[in-house]
Specification:
- The structure holds two protein chains of two kinds.
- Chain A is mostly helical.
- Chain A is built from twelve helices and no strands.
- The longest helix of chain A has about 35 residues.
- Chain B is an all-alpha fold.
- Chain B is built from twelve helices and no strands.
- In chain B, helix 2 packs across helix 12, helix 3 packs across helix 11 and helix 7 runs antiparallel to helix 8.
- Chain B is globular, with a radius of gyration of 22 Å.
- The model of chain B has no long low-confidence stretch (mean pLDDT about 90).
- Classes of the chains: A mainly alpha, B mainly alpha.
- At the A-B interface, helix 2, helix 3, helix 4, helix 6 and helix 8 of A face helix 1, helix 5, helix 9, helix 10 and helix 11 of B.
């Protein structure tokens, strides 16, 4: 056993492209989930207990639905005869092929993990006292400033936890890139399956497997390190 | 309390985004058109009939359901004592063991599937059902240990010690005192484990054999060749199942139990 196989993985442009694409999709997915998840979680955490239960149920529901079904739903929306193209057709706009692109993989992955981000954040935000916000406002901060200066810093642990879950999830999701990406938009997870089961190339599959584990660990440890640094700053 | 307009708009859009695709599927399941189209042309239940006429779906459902139940029960048999030992006793290397039990959640499912395929199918040459059972057992065990473990942390062990001093044998005290107190944790872990086993794809993809497919892998296979509302119909049926589980959990434990 030598490191040669790992070096040749990263020097092969085909593999390297897939690796970079996987990281890119996971990163954009995490950022979008953050940008959409933070306001939504804040909205949910400020509602009454009864409403919050209903909203949480709506957020959890897609998470408990099989990922094949969720990917299939997006095939119906983004496909050649999908909803979006049918709506465009009404305005006599030529159908756009959105399926089997990096865009469709991205949408599917965001759809997969946005609920996870929201649920993690609500868990943290519902423990932030409402008085904090009111205190900031009565001291003259407007709502947006108060949100960024008070709520956001206090939610950092939740944001980090949510980001780790979303990033590692997106990095390793199999069904969504398989169904929405097609062969020209492979990610690491679909690559490993193809190498192992279609091509019987055990060596490559094992190399990819280890790279995936190591990447996951680096991201987890890295973000947790950032979290601990930020926490210390908060205590000072 | 008044809310910022911006936050409300984002939240509403996010909820539309979350529900929209599932609502679309639900609509197409009742549509008469043979290809998926919108708006609906006419109402029919034919796609549901088609689901029950498709053998791979029926067999897949039976397999997935049995697999999820058996794997979860086995995992409870192993996981509950393990979680008890981990929180009750100060064992050497406790932290290592805890991480070891939870490691399948760190290792990507697709990697675990591949590793199990090499070990179970290629090296040990086990049968398909046994292999699937071992794979699913490994997938659900961490959920059991984590959820039961966290409810054991809430449990006051002095109650158990009191039973001992009153002359109750240790085994009996475990069943009569500890178990009833963590029953909601056990139910929650059962639900979580069941759902995760039932929906699992990466493990099942690698371990399925000729003619033996779980429902999600059968569905995935079907989608690769056909494009019709039968899949929408089966999605509606599965979503109804999900709603039933959610209502059940909400009535007994509160929906928060599923987010642990």
């Amino acid at each position: 056993m030598s490191l040669g196989r790992y070096l040749s993985f990263f020097s092969d442009t085909y593999y390297l492209n897939i690796f970079v694409r996987t990281i890119r999709v996971s990163l954009i997915c995490t950022l979008v989930c953050m940008i959409l998840g933070i306001p939504t979680a804040y909205f949910i955490s400020r509602t009454s207990k009864k409403v919050r239960g209903v909203l949480m149920a709506i957020a959890i529901f897609p998470m408990l639905t099989n990922s094949v079904i969720r990917a299939f739903a997006w095939i119906n929306v983004l496909g050649k005869n999908g909803i979006i193209n049918q709506i465009l057709g009404i305005f006599n706009i030529e159908p756009v092929s959105m399926l089997y692109t990096e865009f469709s993989v991205l949408i599917g992955t965001i759809y997969l993990f946005l609920p996870l981000m929201i649920i993690t954040l609500v868990g943290v935000m519902e423990n932030i006292d409402n008085d904090m916000m009111e205190a900031a406002e009565s001291l003259g901060a407007n709502r947006i400033v108060a949100f960024f200066k008070v709520i956001l810093p206090m939610s950092v642990p939740g944001i980090i936890t949510g980001s780790v879950l979303v990033f590692t999830g997106a990095l390793t999701a199999y069904t969504t890139p398989q169904l929405l990406g097609g062969p020209s938009n492979m990610l690491m997870s679909t690559l490993i399956y193809q190498r192992a089961m279609t091509l019987n190339d055990w060596t490559s599959a094992s190399v990819i497997a280890l790279i995936m584990i190591v990447t996951t660990l680096i991201v987890m440890k890295g973000l947790n390190y950032v979290a601990s640094k930020l926490d210390k700053r908060g205590l000072e | 309390m008044k809310k910022g307009g911006f936050i409300t708009i984002v939240a509403v859009l996010v909820f539309v985004f979350l529900m929209f695709p599932l609502v679309i599927i639900a609509c197409t399941a009742f549509n008469t058109a043979p290809t998926i189209s919108f708006p609906i042309q006419g109402f029919t239940l034919d796609w549901f009939k088609n689901v029950f006429a498709t053998e791979s779906f029926i067999d897949g459902f039976k397999l997935s359901f049995t697999l999820a139940i058996v794997a979860t029960l086995l995992a409870l048999l192993v996981g509950v004592p393990a979680a008890y030992a981990l929180s009750r006793f100060s064992i050497k290397g406790k932290k290592f063991l805890k991480n070891y039990f939870l490691s399948p959640t760190i290792i990507p499912g697709i990697v675990l599937g591949y590793a199990l395929y090499q070990f179970i199918v290629l090296t040990l040459k086990m049968g398909v059902i046994e292999g699937l059972l071992i794979g699913h057992f490994m997938v659900v065990l961490p959920y059991i240990i984590r959820v039961v473990g966290s409810s054991l942390e809430q449990f006051d062990f002095s109650i158990e010690e009191m039973a001992w001093t009153l002359g109750c044998p240790k085994i009996k005290a475990f069943f009569k005192v500890v178990l009833p107190n963590i029953s909601s944790g056990i139910v929650a872990s059962f639900m979580l484990a069941f759902i995760n086993s039932f929906n699992n794809i990466p493990i099942s993809m690698f371990l399925s054999g000729p003619g033996v497919r779980t429902l999600p892998t059968a569905l995935m296979n079907y989608i690769e060749y056909f494009y019709d509302p039968t899949v929408s119909a089966i999605s509606v049926l599965l979503m109804i199942g999900t709603i039933l589980i959610m209502v059940l959990v909400e009535k007994t434990l509160g929906i928060g139990a599923l987010t642990k």
